[in-house]
Design a protein that fits this description.
Number of helices of chain A: 6
Shape of chain A: elongated
Structural class of chain C: mainly alpha
CATH topology of one domain in chain A: Alpha-Beta Plaits
Number of helices of chain C: 6
CATH class of one domain in chain A: Alpha Beta
Strand content of chain C: under 5%
Largest sheet of chain A: 4 strands, antiparallel
CATH class of the largest domain in chain C: Mainly Alpha
Largest sheet of chain C: none
CATH architecture of the largest domain in chain C: Up-down Bundle
CATH architecture of one domain in chain A: 2-Layer Sandwich
Order of helices and strands of chain A: HEHEEHEHEHHE
Shape of chain C: globular
Number of strands of chain C: 0
Radius of gyration of chain A: 30 Å
Oligomer: heterotrimer
Strand content of chain A: 5-15%
Chains: A alpha+beta, B mainly alpha, C mainly alpha
Radius of gyration of chain C: 20 Å
């Protein structure tokens, strides 16, 4: 009866082949699941750890960084450089330069952990390509943030307008103050500072050329 | 019109037509294969060149043409160059015999079937010479595989064909098709009153055809995961391209032979709309359905082991085909014997 | 066929080509030092022979020649060669042996040539114009199993010898190591 078993095995084997073909036919009928990479890209998961980037505050459209330098100290491979300035009319310092040396960064995330004001996070960008090494050795994160802010402003025009108005008011307050300080006429609240934000308690350290921009470098 | 019907012009037209048919098929079957593989693996396949990837064969062709044809030192240069020619010639010759429709045949011989098989057998020799002349160990292993595989599968294939010949009684391909006219139940595939195992013979023929054309799951000749590219390892540029095209040309020949022998060639499956251009349409429809199945099989099954490949032939296909041969003979002659004695 | 221009010239040219291929293939097969080229020559020679059969109005025999001799015998020989010998020129035999074997081969071939020539020159020739059978399966089967049953059986002996030869070559290749 070994002939019979051989025949049965042959038939069973042939049937299994047909099953396989039915499976591939069924798969072929389903839509394709690949992403056409250069044309479409995948949205990365929240847990994806790209390079560090500055967070855009969704209300003000600016960075939350106060250039406290804690991230610089936390970095084990010394790849962050932060410069901050003191803006007239603001309580805290704000960032003016934030560069990452991506050639030495090991994506450990210590900087993100250390940040007290949640100003940096992992970027979801994985298309970091350049023909120039300097693009990686001195990755200007602030510039990226500004590009992001532009997109943000287009998307949220009313928020952007409000933020711009706030900034303008601040600048106006500062300029109103500056000539007052220069003439030493101590008229407290001469302009009556229409917007109630930040009365800028500290006096200007140095007289500023009348350019409307009242910035002083601190570090 | 009169001028077109003169013999030299007819021959020239068919020559050009067959070359164009083979070329277009070889080019676009590669694309169909890649598209089919993509579908089965749930991706779109090549879709960048041209609309939906339709210009991909052109791009591939230009790339292959632009490459230098290298003859590596240490090879048998003469045989190395001759092998691609030898591998391309047999399918072209065989297609001359295939009737595309009742009136569209390049050359009708009363031994057409034998013609296809005799020239088909040269193919092995060509692959083997190419592999041997390369003087490359992978190529030589591949050559040995090609030869033993083709010898092993030629036997069940010829046995099946002999079974069929006993049914048809002729080797003229056009006559074989004419016998199958009048609806799909008259195709040789479904002639179960002649031999209840007729569908099985078709399956055996199809399996042997896959093995003879070195197609997956029997592509031991160019098992790229073990043998680089098998017999074509040392070939580059259009030398490789010709081998590649010949593979598809052989598939076309094999599938059209299966269509002619088992699926009624240019006969309509419903009995009407037969002959002329309709016939060519039916023929091409059946042909491409079979070719599609070949592609489908390739992307479904993994490559067999070499021993199981030979076991399949010697232990399963040959006994079954011998049995069908005997059964057909018995079923044909029993009524005669019966009438003789009773 | 009748409307073909230069019909005769083309026929003569094809005949010359076929004869040339046959003789050339035979010369390559006999004179080549590389065994693989010898087999290729044999293949060419058989193709040419097939063409000659076709000229003798026997397409069946022509195709059988190709199917069996090119597709089976040559492949079997090559398979045997492949299992045994490296693709290098044969090593030199001693001169005296070479002369001895060469002389014997010459003698045998002269005898065969004489016999064939005698038959060809003296034998009654039939006109090949009329086809003996119509080439149908039935006619061929009848011819093979009645009139020509002895040559038919002899052909199978040729195949047997080819297989045995391949085996012998393969075995000697194995025992050498």
């Amino acid at each position: 009866m070994s002939l019979l078993t051989a025949l049965r095995e042959t038939v069973a084997g042939f049937k299994s082949l047909l099953t396989g073909m039915r499976i591939t036919a069924r798969e072929a009928a389903k839509p394709s699941i690949t992403v056409q990479y250069p044309h479409d890209t995948l949205k990365m998961a929240d847990r994806f750890r790209g390079h560090v980037k500055l967070v855009l505050d969704p209300v003000t459209g600016k960075s939350r960084c106060t250039s406290c330098n804690l991230c610089v100290r936390a970095c084990p491979s010394d790849c962050l450089t932060v410069e901050g300035i003191k803006r007239e009319g603001e309580k805290k310092k704000s960032v003016s330069e934030y560069t990452l040396d991506f050639t030495t960064c090991s994506l450990c995330g210590s900087c993100v952990e250390a940040c007290p004001s949640d100003a940096i996070e992992y970027s979801k960008d994985y298309n970091v390509v350049s023909l120039d090494r300097a693009e990686f050795a001195r990755m200007d994160l602030l510039k990226k943030l500004e590009a992001e802010a532009k997109v943000w402003a287009e998307k949220n025009p009313e928020l952007a307008a409000a933020a711009a108005a706030a900034a303008a008011a601040q600048a106006a307050a500062a300029t109103a103050k500056a000539p007052a300080a220069a003439t030493t006429a101590s008229a407290p609240g001469a302009g009556a500072a229409p917007v109630a934000t930040t009365p800028a308690p500290t006096p200007a350290v140095a007289p500023v050329p009348a350019a409307g921009v009242t910035e002083t470098r601190t570090t | 019109m009169n001028f077109l019907q003169t013999e030299p012009i007819r021959i020239l037209l068919y020559l050009v037509g067959i070359c164009a048919f083979v070329g277009a098929n070889a080019a676009y079957l590669v694309l169909a294969e890649r598209k089919g593989a993509g579908r089965i693996q749930r991706r779109p396949g090549p879709n960048e060149a041209g609309f939906g990837g339709l210009l991909q064969p052109l791009a591939d062709g230009i790339k292959l043409l632009a490459k230098q044809v290298m003859v590596p030192p240490g090879t048998d240069a003469l045989l190395f160059r001759a092998a691609p020619l030898l591998v391309m010639a047999p399918p072209l010759m065989c297609l001359a015999m295939i009737p595309f429709s009742d009136s569209i045949t390049a050359r009708s011989l009363n031994v057409g079937l034998l013609f296809v098989f005799s020239f088909g057998s040269i193919n092995v020799m060509a692959l083997m010479l190419g592999g041997w002349a390369s003087r490359n160990k992978f190529a030589i292993i591949s050559s040995a595989r090609v030869v033993s595989q083709n010898v092993a599968y030629e036997i069940p294939m010829l046995l099946v064909v002999i079974t069929l010949l006993m049914v048809t009684g002729t080797m003229d391909l056009n006559e074989i098709i004419q016998q199958q006219g009048g609806g799909f139940w008259k195709w040789n595939l479904f002639k179960v009153w002649v031999n209840p195992l007729m569908p099985v013979t078709f399956v055996i023929f199809f399996i042997c055809m896959l093995a003879e054309t070195n197609r997956a799951p029997f592509d031991m000749a160019e098992a790229e995961s073990e043998l680089v590219a098998g017999a074509f390892t040392e070939y580059g540029g259009m030398g490789f391209g010709v081998f590649f095209m010949a593979e598809y040309a052989n598939i076309v020949v094999g599938c059209s032979l299966a269509t002619v022998l088992f699926l009624g060639g240019w006969q309509s499956p419903i009995g009407v709309l037969s002959g002329g251009l309709w016939g060519a349409g039916w023929f091409l429809l059946k042909l491409y359905a079979l070719i599609f199945t070949v592609i489908w099989i390739r992307w479904t099954f993994p490559r067999t082991q070499f021993y199981s490949l030979l076991n399949l032939s010697w232990k399963i296909l040959i006994p079954i085909s011998l049995f069908t041969l005997l059964l057909t003979g018995a079923m044909m002659k029993l009524p005669v014997v019966y009438n003789h004695f009773f | 066929m009748s409307t073909f221009p230069f019909q005769d010239a083309i026929l003569v040219a094809i005949f010359a080509l076929v004869v040339g291929v046959t003789i050339g293939g035979a010369l390559i097969a006999a004179l080549s030092t590389r065994i693989i080229r010898g087999v290729s020559g044999l293949m060419l020679c058989c193709m040419g022979l097939g063409g000659l059969y076709y000229f003798l109005n026997s397409p069946f025999l022509a195709l059988m020649e190709i199917l069996i001799y090119v597709g089976a015998v040559c492949v079997t020989i090559v398979f045997g060669v492949m299992l045994s010998e490296p693709d290098e020129p044969a090593h030199e035999e001693s001169r005296r042996h070479a002369v001895l074997w060469g002389g014997a081969a010459l003698l045998v071939s002269l005898v065969i040539l004489g016999g064939v020539a005698h038959l060809g020159l003296r034998g009654p020739w039939q006109e090949p114009a009329a086809r003996v059978s119509d080439g149908s399966v039935q006619a061929i089967g009848l011819a093979l199993l009645t009139t020509y049953s002895l040559p038919f059986e002899l052909i199978s002996i040729v195949l047997l010898v080819a297989i045995l030869g391949a085996l012998v070559i393969a075995r000697s290749g194995r025992t050498k190591e």
